[in-house]
Amino acid sequence: MIGGWSAGAPAFSGHRDQITAGHDAVVLATGAATPVEAFRVGDRAYGVQFHPEFDAALVETYVDGPGVRGYLRAGGCDPDALVAEARRRDSAHRLLGEGLLQRWLHVAAVDRDPWRGTWPG
Question: What is the pTM assigned to this prediction?
Answer without folding.
Answer: 0.70
